[in-house]
Amino acid sequence: MKYSITQYGSPLDKSLYTLDEKTKTFSSKENNLVLDFDSESNCTFKTGYNCIFKTGYNCIFKTGYNCTFATGANCTFLTGSYCTFNTHSDCTFDTNSDCTFLTGSDCTFKTGYNCTFATGANCTFATKSKCVVVRRDIYEVIKLKKGIKTTLNECGIKGYTEKEKPKRKNRNRGSRR
Prior knowledge:
Layout: E1 4-7, E2 10-11, E3 18-20, E4 25-27, E5 33-37, E6 44-46, E7 52-55, E8 60-62, E9 68-70, E10 76-78, E11 84-86, E12 92-94, E13 100-102, E14 108-110, E15 116-119, E16 124-126, E17 131-135, E18 140-144, E19 148-152, E20 160-164
Parallel strand pairs: 4-6, 5-7, 6-8, 7-9, 8-10, 9-11, 10-12, 11-13, 12-14, 13-15, 14-16, 15-17
Antiparallel strand pairs: 1-2, 1-5, 3-4, 16-19, 17-18, 19-20
């Protein structure tokens, strides 16, 4: 494996992380890491907050907040708030608020508030309020609605479809005696 792991500009002490080269799984409770696994794919990362990742495709990230990702395609992200993503296609994001996404097509987003998405076609969004999509393939801007699942049309076709989340039935449980 070819990689670089630094913290504050110096190599991270090996006692502060584990790296299983067979499964390509990196784990550390440390924050403020710079992880350069640019030539590596199929990796899993578990870190603290304020980390920077540069990886190949098909990676999984479970991190804290304020992280930056530059990855290949087909990655999965479970992160905190204030993260920035620059990825290729077929990625899945489950994040908190105030994130910025620059992605390719066929991505799925489940986020909090105040997110900005610059994407290609066939992406699906389930967001809280104050989120916006910029369709790069056709230069369309879409304001997402809180609680509404929105799916973009195919490449080159303006528009999108919205589907409301199913409402829960109120069950009158009555009083117990």
